[in-house]
Amino acid sequence: MRAKWIFSIFLFLMSTSLFWCETQKSPERQSLEIELSFTKSSHLYFILDIGERKIDLKAKGLLLRTWKIEKIRLWGDPVLQNPISLVKKSALFPPKREEINPEETEKDEEFELEALELSDMPSSYAIILERNISIYIRPKSKGLTSLLKNIGHTLRWYFYPSLRTVWSKAKRKSYTAFDVLMENKEDCRSFYWTLAENSQFIILPP
Amino acid sequence: MSKKKLYLLIFGTIMTIFLVLEGIGYYLGNRVHTRWKAISVEQGSMQAEIKGSTNSDAIAQRKIERMAPKGIYIVIDSGKNTLYLKKGTSIRLQAVISCGSGNFLQEPNGERRWVFDTPRGVFSVTSKLKDPSWIKPDWAFIEESKTVPVNPQDRVEEGVLGDYALGFGDGYFIHGTLYTRLLGRNVTHGCIRVGDEDLKKLFMEVSIGTPIFIY
């Protein structure tokens, strides 16, 4: 009788520990499962692969575009839960949509092109994701102006996130920041262009 | 205490507090790499104890790869205004196109607002038309300060969409254009304009249901 009780308790403990192990999925497994669920929808999604230093744009499991990352810096709390939605894009000079004025269209005899194009997109900006995750995107330095900008950004990187971390901890919230350096301005602009409202991200660990 | 000394004291106190907060924040924030790796290793090793866990990852990866299109599909890069007709990784056709301008039109004295973006996402060819006619929507009249017609026949305009059109839902088409000099620029009201020769090749190759990926 006693042996039966001990055996039952042992079986119970084994099954709960296996259940707990199964629920503690590795980030890789979790990401694959999330990606599998995305393939059933018609949405585009991004995979930020910190280890491989790249950002992939995919849809239905098909790789559409890859942006290579020259350098990436991490700050704050690890990202353990995916997927993460885009909340907003933040730039010093964000691109503005032009309003079509019907009266001007009527009067204009010559066609003037006023459109939002790739060249209008900013090359340095931040993307704010859910759960207090910020990704700062900027191009590699080329020329004196961009070198000075990058020096300024690096100084800011070492001052602002520290204070933000302390503030977030005081509010019992997580805070994560990524500083992503891309090869050139064109890559930064095309990435900004591709980001749409509610874009979904999967972040793979280093 | 003199004023100078007082200001120095206040400044020194603020700087000390600032540096202490910076130090704490730096310590807390800069360990992310090690913490991440530790969590990954811990969860990975727990999972490896469960039989067949690495097989599950490979199965999931294969399932993802199987979702990709098997036959031909269209990929549209709206930023670079380029269309690719692909099969697997090979490109069968690459065409310069025009996508949405990103401008917007507000209805005068009205509530309606149109934003002329090419939609992003996964679509499929829903219709194939030869010698298509353009059924002008309301915005096409409002944009030119014209009255929106009551009679549907007054909306029809011939010859502006080229020889072929491929519909992909919600009134969006891949069609031809009279303004070939503007190909490569973002000038449309959301539809995708293609040159005549490329459009003909595209029309011949695709069928209803061919996937279209737009980003």
Structural write-up:
The complex is a heterodimer of chains A (206) and B (215). By secondary structure, chain A is of the alpha+beta class. Chain A has a single domain, classed as L,D-transpeptidase catalytic domain-like. Chain A has 5 helices and 8 strands; from the N terminus they run ααββββαββαβαβ. In chain A, β6 (133-139), α4 (144-170) and β7 form a beta-alpha-beta unit. Chain A is globular, with a radius of gyration of 23 Å. Mean pLDDT of chain A is 84; it is low at 17-23. Chain B has 215 residues and is α+β, with helices and mostly antiparallel strands. Chain B has 5 helices and 13 strands. Chain B has helices spanning 3-29, 32-48, 53-67, 138-142, 196-205; strands spanning 72-77, 82-87, 90-98, 104-106, 113-115, 121-124, 127-130, 133-135, 156-158, 164-167, 173-175, 192-194, 211-214. In chain B, the strands form 3 sheets. In chain B, strands 6-13-1-2-3-12-11-10-7 form a 9-stranded mixed beta sheet, with helices on one face. In chain B, strands 4-5 form a two-stranded antiparallel ribbon. Chain B has a two-stranded antiparallel ribbon with strand order 8-9. Chain B is flat. The chains are: A alpha+beta (206), B alpha+beta (215). Chains A and B meet through α1, α2, β3, α3 and α4 of A and α1, α2, α3, β1 and β4 of B.
Short description:
Chain A is an alpha+beta fold and 206 residues long.
Task: Describe how the helices and strands are arranged.
The complex is a heterodimer of chains A (206) and B (215).
Chain A: H1 2-23, H2 27-38, E1 45-49, E2 54-59, E3 62-76, E4 84-90, H3 102-107, E5 125-129, E6 133-139, H4 144-170, E7 176-182, H5 185-194, E8 200-204
Parallel strand pairs in A: 1-8, 6-7
Antiparallel strand pairs in A: 1-2, 2-3, 3-7, 4-5, 4-8, 5-6
Chain B: H1 3-29, H2 32-48, H3 53-67, E1 72-77, E2 82-87, E3 90-98, E4 104-106, E5 113-115, E6 121-124, E7 127-130, E8 133-135, H4 138-142, E9 156-158, E10 164-167, E11 173-175, E12 192-194, H5 196-205, E13 211-214
Parallel strand pairs in B: 1-13, 11-12
Antiparallel strand pairs in B: 1-2, 2-3, 3-12, 4-5, 6-13, 7-10, 8-9, 10-11
